[in-house]
Amino acid sequence: MTVMHIDMNAFFASVEQRCNPSLRGKPIAVIGSAGRTVVTTASYEARAHGVKTGMNKYEAKRACPGLVFVVGDNRKYIDTSVRILNIFKQFSPIVEAYSIDEAFVDITGTAALFGPPLTLALSVKERIRQEVGLTCSIGIAPNKLLAKLASDMKKPDGLVVIEEGEVSSVLEDLPVCELWGVGPRLTAHLSTLAIKTCGQLGRYPVSVLRERFGIIGERLKLMGQGIDPNPVVPIGEEEEAKSVGHSTTLPKDISDKEALKRYLLKLSEMVGFRARGHKLKGRKITLTLRYNDFFTFGRQRSLSFPTNDTRAIYAAASGILDSIRLRTSIRLIGVSISDIVAGCTQMELFDEGRKRESLLQAIDSINRDLGEFTITWGTLLEEECGRHGPGVISPAWRPEGVKRVNVR
DNA sequence: TCTGGGGTCCTAGGACCC
DNA sequence: TCTGGGGTCCTAGGACCC
Question: Is the Cβ–Cβ distance between A332 and A250 less than 8 Å?
Fold first, then answer.
């Protein structure tokens, strides 16, 4: 197998610089429209000054006083992402949209058409540069794990090929934290076993790893050896989503439950709207809260029936909220449905349920045509929470599928 | 006048059942 | 006087990713 991984360099920031020439060559940071927002992507000029993803505006400005903030625009990023994916599809039918700015392409057996992998990758980079005006880093290797590793090795505008025969020498001294799925906690834990490099990880007795890390332990050893059995999953063949949720950091911390419930209603409608659009219903409703001191927790409730009805989602979530004694004011509130039942096309048994479903369908179709929340629930209109600037898209976005965040 | 939003997978512990 | 022991369902929370 030969896998190519493409990582768009500083994607959101690069798109903004392409669209607005006055931003080119400058340190910029893409942020959200809300007051309490963070840096989503920093341009390379800004990274050189220490600006990082996740910083708040003040930290970022402190690191780089000349920093220019740009409020992100989802539609631009989606359009650009689709154009790039279409380029990949001309080289192979097996294209996985891993996120809005990353993709895997299975290029096994494409040499007769496009030449060896290196040649193919150069053509891809050239087409992206010419047609979209952006640079990317490409990694090519025998599997996804190694291809992702390779694309990470040279940024920006990189191209790295790891041949089958080079795998063990590449991994020997590579720190384990470079592996996809090994974060800070695992890195620290492995370090207590004197495991610092992939080479050491790959040679470690699996029995000890299994005892310490459970099922992950077995996978860790394979990763240390550069083994990854996962196939490239083409667009349209992904598994059904397992949860659908929305959350928001409030403009100001709130203690009053009735005020919180107005946000809850809006979030429930966003979740219901998206779930109904994908014909998904969930049986489990989770309410997520974050206190002003950042302590974050969730409480869930299983229903006796799966639902995507705004009213039922809201009823369950606000019931959970009622059952919690708030220790302090709330900074973030979120709702999600999980325990998903897909393809919920079976008709409601009762007249009442049928009427309700066709009402929701009618509302949804108007909102799809005219913009989200054209028709909305009474109390939403009374409050500032009924209006909502365009959020910055999640990098977990997919071109088709439930992960798509609805943009107006 | 700090610290976004959307996901996945895994584990631990309690309730309950046979 | 106590002490079995699987299996399943459920909730809570951690770790990781983009």
Answer: yes
Under DSSP, the state recorded for A92 is -
Beta-sheet pairing, A159-161 with A296-307: unpaired
Can you give the pLDDT at residue A41? Answer: 97
- Annotated active-site residue A372? The verdict is no
Give the model confidence (pLDDT) of A318-331 as tens digits: 999 999 999 999 99
Is pLDDT above 80 for A389? no
From A164-178, A200-214, A377-391, the region with the lowest mean pLDDT? A377-391
Strand B, nucleotides covered by protein (CB < 7 Å)? 1-12
Q: Pick the catalytic residue: A102, A172, A178, A237? A: A102
What letter does residue A350 receive in the DSSP assignment? S
Burial class of residue A293 in the structure, from the number of CB atoms within 10 Å of its CB (0-12 exposed, 13-18 middle, 19+ buried)? exposed
pLDDT for residue A341: 87
Q: Which CATH number fits the domain that encloses residue A306?
A: 3.30.1490.100
Burial A249-274 (b: 16+ CB within 10 A, else e): bbeeebeeeeebbbbbbbbbbbbbbb
The token duo for A50 is 């220490």
CA of A382 to C1' of B9 (A): 40
Is the pTM higher than 0.85? The answer reads yes
A323 touches strand C (CB under 7 A): no
CATH code for position A177: 1.10.150.20
The DSSP H or E segment spanning A5 is strand A3-8
Based on the fold, state whether residues A19 and A118 are members of the same structural domain.
yes
My answer on whether A255 and A151 are in the same domain is no
CA of A73 to C1' of C9 (A): 43
Kindly report whether the peptide bond that precedes residue A156 is cis, defined as omega within 30 degrees of 0: yes
